[in-house]
Design goal:
Chitinase A, domain 3; six-stranded antiparallel sheet; 10 helices
Length: 564
């Protein structure tokens, strides 16, 4: 065997100073370091990689793989090594270290190697085993941890994002995604990866951890890779799959909780208020409306939000909890956004729908109870008393008239209550009960009010307690027939030519008592009469003169003439 064959085929280094064993019949093996874990031992026909130092008995070195800066790779038991090495390497574990003493007849015999190994030389080797594999080996996959839920696993053509630590079989690290500050992102099964990783990633769940041992023929083979992966090296990858998707994926929806009833589902053009937690596929939280204590409010189907959420919110019900899984091509794509959403990330939104409406919505009225024989109903300008409970659509209580001593009072059509409530109180009978759903444009709008969020849909439970017929807009009092022909003389009760406040009040009250006219309904009739007197006492001297007293119809006619 030539000296060149020593360079290519011998393993580890021989250690001097083992003593003289005398004439040897077989290889002497000293297993001076055995690793605690030995998953595999060298057998005949295995491919191996190892380092060695080779010396004579006196310690003089004749060969060393270390000096060449490269490990030795070869096959055990097929005659490519000297017989003593073939025998001495049998049963070794990865990272095991041995001292071997090879007698001449199991080494280079009586011939030796010219200029390198003299005849009948006993050889001493110090060997460390670095790698073992066989051409019949399969990929070795060990699941280290797996999430409880796994709705989907990696398939060919999927795009994966994963972290990894890569080592040689002896534990020498050669690469790590963690040191680069980002995941390794690639397609599976399309030739972008070594074959072993293409196979080793198949069937993984997001969040799963695996150990994948790849034989050289499924890795970088005889050439190795650069200076970090030697030829014929088995590779060990510790893999954490962060997320994956397929370019053909659409939005995936999962209903987490549905309300008992759902009268309406959101469609394109609706304005939705919802809470959400946004996480990556590995559970990392990147955003939450709850942390801001404010719903996210937007139109859907209009391009104001990422396409995946535009699609994912279609068909939601008020009160529904839904999980929306959005692939990156329907989210923030290859570039990601900010420092919390990496490129090509799958996003998971757990949403809770608080309410939604459409800008074209009217007040929704549901009559809960209507008394029989209801002939008189409320009209514009009527004065009504009612009880109410006001809440958001998610059940959050806002206000209630029952918290006060008496019902709420209002004159309809005077802009004293929100438009939607005013509409909902029209055409009601005394004793009638209704549920009103009021969209924000008929409620408190985008800005909301004290205690009412912006753009909130409101739910009112109302009960009409009583109503009084109103008067036309701008009037404080109207006669049921024609007013008296000589109004000033009848109003001047003591006939002194002037009408003070007490005379004016007495006259108006008499007209009401006799059914000849009615005041604008109010909880304070005295204030209404005082306002009437103040309107007529034009110079504010405390009395009304004949020149000052004018009916509103006469005033309106004068204004028309002035305009003409």
């Amino acid at each position: 065997m030539s000296p060149g064959s020593i360079v290519l085929l011998l393993s580890t280094l021989g250690a001097p100073g083992l003593g003289d064993p005398g004439p040897l019949e077989d290889v002497v093996i000293d297993r001076y370091y055995i690793p605690k874990i030995c998953l595999r031992e060298v057998q005949m026909g295995d491919f191996i990689r190892y380092h060695y130092n080779g010396t004579f008995k006196d310690g003089k070195k004749f060969d060393s793989s270390y000096d060449r800066g490269a490990t030795v790779a070869g096959v055990v038991g097929v005659g490519r090594l000297i017989t003593g090495m073939d025998r001495g390497l049998q049963g070794m574990c990865v990272n095991e270290r041995r001292h071997l003493i090879v007698p001449p007849h199991l080494g280079y015999g009586s011939i030796g190697v010219a200029g390198l190994i003299p005849p009948d030389a006993t050889l001493y080797f110090d060997v460390v085993m670095l790698d073992i594999w066989n051409k019949d080996d399969k990929l070795q996959i060990t699941t280290l941890s797996k999430p409880e839920r796994c709705n989907r696993t990696v398939e060919n053509s999927d795009f994966v994002r994963y972290h990894y630590n890569g080592t040689l079989l002896d534990g020498t690290p050669f690469d790590s995604s963690y040191s680069k500050g980002g995941t390794y992102d690639t397609y599976v099964g399309t030739g972008w990866l070594i074959k072993g990783m293409d196979q080793g990633l198949l069937g993984m769940c997001a969040g799963e951890k695996r150990s994948v041992i790849i034989p050289p023929f499924l890795a970088y083979g005889e050439k190795g890779y650069g200076t970090v992966i030697p030829p014929q090296a088995s590779l060990v990858f510790s893999v954490l799959l962060v997320d994956f998707h397929n370019p053909k994926d659409g939005v995936f929806l999962e209903q987490l909780e549905m309300p008992e009833s759902c009268k309406r589902r959101a469609v394109t053009g609706d304005f939705v208020r919802y809470h959400y937690n946004g996480t990556l596929m590995d559970g990392t939280l990147f955003d939450s409306s709850y942390s801001r204590n404010h719903t996210y409010n937007t139109y859907i189907g209009k391009g104001y939000i990422i396409p995946g959420m535009d699609q994912g919110l279609q068909g939601v019900c008020v009160g529904e909890r839904r999980r929306v899984v959005v692939p990156p091509h329907l989210a923030y794509g290859e570039n990601g956004t900010g420092d919390k959403i990496p490129g090509s990330a799958v996003l998971i939104f757990d949403v809770h729908i608080i309410d939604f409406h459409n800008p074209a919505d009217a007040v929704e009225i549901e009559t809960v109870y209507r008394p029989e024989g209801c002939n008189v109903t409320t009209r514009d300008r009527d004065f009504v008393r009612y009880h109410y409970n006001c809440s958001l659509l998610d059940g959050t209580k806002l206000f209630s008239s029952h918290d006060y001593e008496k019902p709420q009072e209002v004159t309809l059509g005077t802009n004293k209550v929100i438009e939607g409530l005013n509409s909902g109180l029209l055409n009601m009978c005394a004793g009638e009960r209704r549920v009103l759903i009021i969209p924000p444009h008929l409620g408190h709008g985008e800005s909301g009010a004290r205690g009412v969020p912006g753009s909130a849909v409101l739910r009112f439970e109302v009960e009409l307690i009583s109503m009084e017929e109103g008067v036309p807009e701008g009037y404080l009092f109207i006669w049921h027939g024609d007013p008296p022909a000589s109004l000033y003389e009848q109003m001047d009760l003591n006939k002194d030519g002037e009408i003070p406040a007490d005379e004016f009040s007495t006259f108006i009250k008499t007209q009401v008592a006799e059914g000849k006219g009615r005041l604008m309904p109010s909880s304070d009739p005295e204030k209404v009469i005082a306002d009437m007197f103040r309107n007529q006492d034009r110079n504010q001297d405390g009395k009304i003169t004949p020149e000052e007293l004018k009916l509103k119809s006469d005033e309106d006619q004068e204004k028309i003439h002035e305009e003409l």
